[in-house]
Amino acid sequence: MSKPQKGLLIVLSFFAIYVIWGSTYLMNKIVVSEVAPLLLAAIRFLSAGGLILVIARLLKLSLRISKRQLLNCGIAGFLFLVYGNGIFVWALKYVDSGFAALIAATQPLFVIFLMRILHGNKIQPKSLVGVFLGLIGMYFLISQDTLELNHESTIGIIMLFTCVLSWSYASIFVSKANLPSHFFVSTGYQMVSAGSILLLGSWAFNESWVSPLQWSLNAQIAMVLLILLGSIVAFSAFNYLLKTVATEKVSTSAYVNPVIALLLGWYVLDEQISLQSVIAGGILLTGVYFINTKKKILIFQRFRAKKLNVEN
What we know:
mainly alpha, 13 helices
């Protein structure tokens, strides 16, 4: 692949994880109002994973996979899709989609702490500012008086944070793990393994299984979009980016996802957007900016260089 082609693919991949994923909060919210959450996720990922492997075969990509790679795909599928997504969808039964997206925006905070704990990466001064702002944003988000909390919604919010933790660790794991060389094949195996676990989970928890033919038209359309765009396109783009660019850069999807989710939730589902949520979101996204931007590093470097020149 030539450099221009690779550059275009990277740009399109970022568009997918920014914009398409921002809309999946709304689509999941629509479907989960009619379909049990684990069954929803199982149908989504089994369908998408199967289609991806069929497409990979048609493209004459090798589907061979070693035991280690299969195990790693299973681990990644569990962390990303079984827990990180399946439980997240369950929580959407009790939490607004836009509010959930703001919680998901804390992912870069989790990534930076995990990178420090697992790999000893030094936290830069600008990142510390970002973490501080992120913590303030989280406090403003969950402490607002207009937030109607009951037992179920409180549990839902707590579980959302654990889902973000799972997704964050999976992002770091995939960037280092031994996986099939082609990201498309890797994505397919992750989805099939996750979908199988989710289907077993749905059966174990005795969820009500309803035929897609009995869903409303809105739920059917939302599911098709989740499979084709949210799973096949966006998740494949995500796996590609994790192997191509820095994990911290991939996590910048947290800038855009909450904005799109909030607007769609407000416009389509009439979800309320409180002023405090907007302020909390602004603080959170500013913190994410400080964590990911390289500009501050350059400023610190220039300041340090000037200081050294003065001292000399």
